[in-house]
Design goal:
- By secondary structure, the protein is an alpha+beta fold.
- It is built from eight helices and nine strands.
- Helices cover 38% and strands 21% of the residues.
- Strands 1-8-3-6-9 form a five-stranded antiparallel β-sheet, covered by helices on one side. It has a four-stranded antiparallel β-sheet with strand order 2-7-4-5, with no helix packed on it.
Length: 256
């Protein structure tokens, strides 16, 4: 049996949430701003021309351009007097910054289809689930040629710990996590030990045993608890549990 199991490392992608979306056919000279927003706002120009001002620089824009408004920056944009633009937009929040959205203007032809679907759905209600999907699809397209997802050294241990917390019930290895983070296993182990005072394997065992104790107190059998917490061998689970707590797991069964 050929199985390929990949981990999704928790990070900024897990915090993305759309805020608004829309479409507008602007009148000549129509202007938005100066204004500041607390979320990302991306506009795709379908046709016409206009101007986008960000950080003191004015960018003339035309069909196919995407202009990026990041959170916390004062921006202004206005339509051409002769050939006013028509655009669709989508706004979304995120807990951090996307490196691939640092550029004020992006040209990515594959984004057209996403913004067309956004435009076509502006006259409909109750499409929140689809807008979530379109938001992630758009960001995926824009990030393909970037190095987004590369972590700073200080992030690796935290990401590894979060991954262990979320996958403790499965057969998980530090080698798998290191591969997902694109980092050497030994280097990750060293960073983890420096940050948390124990190796990833020691942390995982302790975390599993503490979860096992909670399940036992809820009345689950020792056999099912061993399976629920990622122990493939019942004897090994019982031995480690007793070594950690000083009493066998069977003593915590409700009613015992």
């Amino acid at each position: 049996m050929n199985v390929r199991d990949h981990f999704i490392i928790p990070g900024i992608w897990h915090t993305v949430a759309p805020v608004n979306y829309g479409y507008q056919e602007c009148l000549p000279g129509h202007c938005h701003g100066p204004a500041v927003r607390e979320y990302y706002l991306l506009h795709y120009v379908f046709s016409g021309n206009g101007y986008f001002e960000r950080e003191g620089v004015t960018y003339p824009l035309t069909q196919g351009d995407i202009f990026v408004i990041p959170p916390g920056q004062i921006t202004t944009y206005y339509a051409s007097d002769r050939d006013p633009w028509r655009y669709a937009w989508i706004g979304f929040t995120a807990s951090g910054e996307f490196d691939f959205l640092s550029t004020p203007v992006i040209r990515q032809s594959q984004a057209l289809g996403v913004f067309q679907r956004i435009r076509d759905r502006c006259d409909q209600d109750g499409l929140d689930a689809e807008i979530f999907g379109l938001t992630f699809q758009l960001l995926c397209i824009l990030s393909r040629d970037s190095k987004e997802g590369n972590l700073s050294v200080s992030d690796y241990a935290v990401k590894a710990k979060t991954c262990l917390d979320n996958t403790y019930m499965q057969k998980v290895s530090i080698a798998q996590i290191a591969k997902s983070l694109h980092i050497d296993r030994r280097y990750l182990t060293a960073l983890f030990s420096k940050t948390y005072g124990c190796s990833p394997q020691e942390y995982l065992t302790r975390f599993r045993l503490e979860k096992a104790r909670d399940f036992l107190l809820q009345g689950h059998s020792v056999t099912s608890v061993a399976s629920l917490t990622g122990f493939s061998d019942l004897c090994n689970f019982s031995r480690k549990f007793k070594a950690y707590y000083g009493y066998p797991p069977s003593s915590l069964r409700r009613g015992k």
